[in-house]
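Usage example:
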Amino acid sequence: QQQVKQSPQSLIVQKGGISIINCAYENTAFDYFPWYQQFPGKGPALLIAIRPDVSEKKEGRFTISFNKSAKQFSLHIMDSQPGDSATYFCAASRAAGNKLTFGGGTRVLVKP
Amino acid sequence: KAGVTQTPRYLIKTRGQQVTLSCSPISGHRSVSWYQQTPGQGLQFLFEYFSETQRNKGNFPGRFSGRQFSNSRSEMNVSTLELGDSALYLCASSLGVTGELFFGEGSRLTVL
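Running the assembly step on the lines above writes:
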């Protein structure tokens, strides 16, 4: 049972554009929602995370939007750069624990 | 500060053999988690250890096991290897039960 669904599987965006990745979860016990960035040959790296008591969190060009009632959250990458080309994973956990349930990943390609 | 170190980085085994993978967490981190990454199933949680005790376990068969030592270093073992065990095995460490994981670069296992 896939508890976190991520879309799209891939997207191509022009340099300077906005990349938007969406995730939906089923388990209402989830209370911590991180996003990870993974480059080829590397392990995932924590990018930004949000808890359900806030609806939006911004760190630099990266913004998470969270909709608790819809059980959805999304990552927006503003002013996308070629260096942002990577695979992005959303995830969720209960009690902010270390057992993360990951979405399927989105491969982002930023064209110069 | 050194990151999470995993050894070996690459290994090839044949069906029926067993394998042991090693993980050295970031200094001071007491939690170590293991994840399996495959193109088909994505990132899946295997287990988590904290202060030498298994805190959580994913939905993997008993052939997958792990342990943590007093210095927080961890090992995972897969016995009676199957072709489907071919994957990137990622170790992640955390200061505590925070959900903020720091991943190593992984051990890529190929089973022939």
